[in-house]
Design brief:
The chain is mostly helical. It folds into three domains: about 50 residues, no CATH class; about 140 residues, Orthogonal Bundle (Cytochrome Bc1 Complex, Chain D, domain 2), CATH 1.10.760; about 120 residues, Cytochrome Bc1 Complex, Chain D, domain 2. About 40% of the residues lie in helices and about 5% in strands. It is built from 14 helices and four strands. It has a two-stranded antiparallel sheet. A two-stranded antiparallel ribbon has the order 2-3. Helix 7 packs across helix 10. The protein binds heme C (2 copies). The site of one heme C has 28 residues, from helix 6, helix 7 and helix 10.
């Protein structure tokens, strides 16, 4: 039988120290065999523990720092192909719109509009969320209807008011591009384009849109990475209970919630949140990530609130049933601004495009 000591050592070797610490904490409650006692004595030695404490984000912290990305993956042909496709207007019916038209990765990963404008100037009915860090969301779309980035990417191309195309035509158009076909072959070992493989490349690129921010440095122990105001704002953010919903590595993206959990609120432009629909159901939305939120005005699925400070006040009233004073709102906004991250250079719009852009 494998000993507990061996198991823990293997977990540590494979998954690094932090998972090992978590496993250690959770196992300590349930296993008391000899190996385990030997191991816990070892782990309890002051040197080991003090090292852990100095480096560790306290386990009670509701927000986690982003992990560094694997350079082999971000520089892979797969990701590079996905980047090209993400910026390729041939994916739309009339060649005028790419994914990047509504998700500008260099400007917050969204389109800065209340609701998106698709092919032929058609106005959609919902705000475009950022694609930045979307790989950390448990589901995609405001209502969580796509369970992966691949499933998500198949949607916009054929959505009549987004890219208004159909797959047979898109595949036919792309199949005439010899350069693209040979890149495709390098990655997928076939020259036969399929929607699923195109979506897989796009999704791979999206998974690399990770934006480390000053706040991540702060969580990693650099107390001077953010201003005193931002640090105070983070304490308020936790203290008021925003982290009940905006938590984890994306400060959101991991749970569905009511908008208007406490009471229905007016969110401007004649929009109200928290009201039941005709069938009497109160809709739920994916709690959005707050990473880069200072770059993604206007706010909410309605796109009806322009100022971040107003969005914070709406949240306090709608989700927590309280009013937050201007001074605290300002500090929370300073904290939210510290979540603006750096877009990795590999993710930028391709400069050498091999297709009509
Ligand atoms: C016309 C504008 C438009 C275009 C073009 C567009 N999107 Fe979107 N995107 C949106 C809107 C609006 C939503 C939110 C829709 C919803 O939730 O119902 C969205 C949602 C998403 C999401 C989910 C993010 C989240 O947090 O839920 C991802 C990922 C995404 N789009 C990627 C893409 C990709 C990849 C393409 C190209 C294949 C693309 N988009 C093309 C407007 C657009
Ligand atoms: C009960 C869960 C919950 C709590 C608590 C909560 N939020 Fe939210 N938050 C949401 C949901 C759900 C949305 C999306 C609402 C919508 O547009 O449908 C949201 C949206 C936001 C947005 C807009 C993001 C965007 O991209 O449009 C900001 C900013 C925000 N919250 C900040 C806060 C702050 C600050 C607090 C604490 C004062 C807070 N939230 C508390 C669930 C919550």
């Amino acid at each position: 039988m494998t000993s507990m000591f061996g198991v823990v050592r293997r977990i540590r070797r494979r998954h690094g120290r932090w998972l090992h610490v978590i496993v250690l904490l959770s196992l300590s409650a349930c296993d008391q065999n000899d190996d385990w006692q030997k191991f816990s004595r070892l782990a309890a030695q002051p040197t080991t523990l003090s090292t852990l404490q100095r480096e560790a984000i306290p386990l009670s912290e509701p927000v986690r720092a982003l992990q560094a990305q694997n350079p082999d993956f971000i520089n892979s042909e797969l990701v590079s192909l996905g980047r090209q496709l993400f910026h390729d207007k041939r994916l739309s019916g009339d060649g005028t719109i790419s994914c990047a038209s509504c998700h500008n990765v260099q400007a917050g990963g969204d389109d800065g509009r209340a609701t998106s404008v698709g092919m032929k100037g058609q106005i959609g009915n919902i705000n475009a969320p950022t694609v930045l860090n979307s790989g950390h969301n448990f589901r995609q779309f405001w209502d969580g209807r796509a369970d992966s980035l691949v499933a998500q990417a198949l949607g916009p191309v054929v959505n009549p008011i987004e890219m208004g195309a159909n797959w047979p035509e898109v595949l036919e158009k792309l199949s005439t591009d010899k350069v693209l076909l040979s890149r495709f072959e390098t990655v997928f070992n076939t020259r036969e384009l399929t929607p699923e493989l195109l979506a897989e490349a796009i999704a791979a690129y999206e998974r690399t849109l990770i934006t480390p921010s000053p706040f991540d440095d702060y969580l990693n122990g650099n107390t001077r990475a953010i201003s005193a105001q931002a640090a105070a704002g983070y304490e308020l953010f936790k203290g008021y209970g925003c982290t009940a919903c905006h938590q984890g590595v994306n400060l959101g993206g991991n749970v569905m919630q009511y908008f208007g959990a406490f009471h229905a609120v007016d969110v401007g432009h004649g929009q109200r949140a928290g009201n039941a629909d005709k069938a009497g159901t109160i809709p739920v939305y994916k709690v959005p990530t707050l990473r880069n939120v200072a770059m993604t005005s206007p706010y909410f699925h309605t796109g009806s609130v322009t100022l971040l400070s107003d969005a914070v006040k709406v949240m306090a009233a709608a989700q927590l049933g309280r009013t937050i004073g201007d001074e605290d709102v300002e500090l929370i906004v300073a904290f939210l601004e510290s979540l603006t991250g750096e877009v990795p250079t590999h993710a930028m719009k391709p400069t050498q495009v091999t297709f009509a852009e």
